Amino acid sequence: MKASFIDVDGIRTRYLHDGQGEPLLLIHGFGFSADVWVRVLDALAARFQVVAPDVLGHGFTDWVDAGKEPAPLFMARHLSRFLDVIGIKCCVALGSSLGGVLAALMYLQRPHQITKLIFDAIHTPVSDTGTLDPDGLRGTMKNGVKALTEPTLQSCIDRMANICFDRNRAATDVALMQVTIYAQPDRLEAYTRIGDSIIAHARNEAVRIDPERIAVPSLFLCGRQDIRIPIDVIQVNHHRVRGSRMAVFENCGHLPEIEHPERFVAEVTEFITT
C-alpha cells in the first residue's frame, strides 16, 4: 500500500493505492479517512487496482466549502474528478456509510464512470426518503464531535468502538491516524459544515437517491447489529435496486471492514469477479 497526494481542481487530495487489474474505488464514511480500509486494502489489491481517497474535508484532503450546493453533491463530483485526474475511466465503487451515498451520487451524476456499486453499512438507496436521516446523522455527529474536539488516542478508539458490535475490534492503528488527522485546525469545522449541510438538504430532491434509477449490479453489505442502519429496511427493500444482492455479517456493527475483514474481502471479490 502506498500513499500519494494529487491536485484535483486545486484541491490537494490524499489517496492510498496499490494493485493492478480492474479498478476498485473505496470511499470511507463520515469523519473517517482512507485509513479505515487498512485491514482490507492489501488483500483487495491482490486482485484489483485499489484506490482509496480521503474525501473532501477528511483525512489529509483539503476542505473547500460547497457554499449553497448540498455538500454530498460537491463531494461526489470531487471524487469523480479525482478518477479523471488519476486516469481511471470507470470502476467499481464501494462506499461505507456516507461513502455509499457518495458512490450512488457519483453513479447518478456520471453513470458511465461506475460499473458496479457496493453499499457498505448504508440503506439510503432503499430508505423511504432516499436521503440520510437527519436524526441519525445528529447521533453520528455527537459521537464524532467528541473525538474531534479533543483528539486523544482513547477518544478516537472510543468513537470507533461505539459503532462496533465488539468494542475490542476497534482498530487502534486507524484510531492513531485519526489523532493526527483530527488535530488539523480545520477538521472540526469541515466535519460540522458537511454534517450541517446534509441535514439542511435532507429533503432536497437533488440529493434524493431513486433506487429504480440504479441500473448497475449492486451489493449491500450489512452488519446484523449495526446501530446506525436498520437492517430490516434493507432486507425488505433492497430489491428496489434491480438485481441487487445482500450479504449480512453476524456479530457486526457499522464497520464490517474492521470487524470482519476476511469475509469482507471474500464477499467483495466474489461480487466483482462474477
Mean of all residue-level pLDDT scores: 95
Summing up helix and strand content along with how strands pair, one would put the structural category as alpha/beta
* Measured distance between first and last alpha carbons: 25 Å
Q: How many structural units, i.e. domains?
A: 1
Q: Portion of residues in helices?
A: 25-40%
Account of the protein in words:
The chain is an alpha/beta fold. It has a single domain, classed as 3-Layer(aba) Sandwich (Rossmann fold), CATH 3.40.50. Helices cover 39% and strands 18% of the residues. The chain is built from ten helices and eight strands. An eight-stranded mixed beta sheet has the order 1-2-4-3-5-6-7-8, sandwiched between helices. The longest helix is centred in the first third of the chain and has 16 residues, at 71-86. It starts with a strand and ends with a helix. The mean pLDDT is 95.
Write out key terms for the chains shown.
10 helices; about 270 residues; Rossmann fold; eight-stranded mixed β-sheet; globular
Produce a short descriptive summary.
By secondary structure, this protein is an alpha/beta fold. It is 39% helix and 18% strand. The protein has an 8-stranded mixed β-sheet with strand order 1-2-4-3-5-6-7-8, sandwiched between helices.
Topology record:
Elements: E1 2-8, E2 11-18, E3 23-27, H1 41-45, E4 49-53, H2 71-86, E5 91-96, H3 98-109, E6 114-120, H4 134-149, H5 153-161, H6 172-182, H7 187-200, E7 218-223, H8 231-237, E8 245-249, H9 256-259, H10 261-273
Parallel strand pairs: 3-4, 3-5, 5-6, 6-7, 7-8
Antiparallel strand pairs: 1-2, 2-4
